[in-house]
Design brief:
MetI-like fold, 2 domains, two-stranded antiparallel sheet, 14 helices, about 75% helix, about 0% strand
Length: about 325
Amino acid sequence: MLAFTLRRAIQAIGVMIAVGIISFSMFRFAGDPVNQIVSIDTSAAERANIRASLGLDDPVLVQFTRYLVNAAQFKFGVSYQFRLPVADLLKERMPATLELATCATILAMIFGILMGVYCALRRDTLLAKLFQAVSLIGISLPTFLIGILLIYLFAVTLGWLPSFGRGDVVPIGWWTTGLLTLSGLKALILPSITLGLFQMTLIMRLVRAEMLEVLRTDYIRFARARGLTTRAIHFGHALKNTLVPVITVAGLQFGSVIAFAIITETVFQWPGMGLLFVQAVQNVDIPIMAAYLIMVSLIFVTINLVVDILYTVVDPRLRATVGHTT
């Protein structure tokens, strides 16, 4: 198990080095950083001094090594637009994005699993067919359109929920949360539904398909022959084995939710990292763009590593395979 974890960790480090090469290339090929910092009438001497202070005259290998070392310490330079350290900007925006992504994933997991189990066990009922129809809508409609429709219905027409912003937040150390205020909770509802709807429908359809497959296996027939209760068969055996692929999808989808929260944060003007990235693209703020790429990749790699380890915890067969190979 330890050797398996170490191998996965080494692979994760290799992926992050590759991502570092890509993000470093943004500084080399996306234009001269000096032109983004100074004005048009800045003299050549001042430009040369700025280039020297930024280390842009050093060899490429030296610049890349320095960039990797600084990135490993979460030092991403200074934003061209805000004139502030990028790490501080990400630290300020990260609670909003993680809170939104976590709430969206929890909603998607709870309702997706419940709806998937119901559609598998009561697949001929009217409610199950309604759930499947809703899942098709959730997969087919683009995220921005879902967000606009929810804003029009619940914010503009009914006036029940706010259409933008995060509401009032409470600081807990460096972290800020809106879960402890009424306006923060109300502001979180529409973005969470918008962001989690696709994931919920995906999990629902996956759970339904996997559970229908598991219910046809021999060990389920054997469990029925032993006289186990229907509840024990469905939830103690079938659902437990169904959750193995769900863990993978949910884990990777959580990374996707964070990475692609850009659209939802833009629609609802949610003050998270996604909105910050959109503003950075509009202003060609390369340090923020590169840092966002590294942060999202780190989240993906970490989640993937955790999912691989959880696999061996949930499925005993994988533990045996890992133990044999190590």
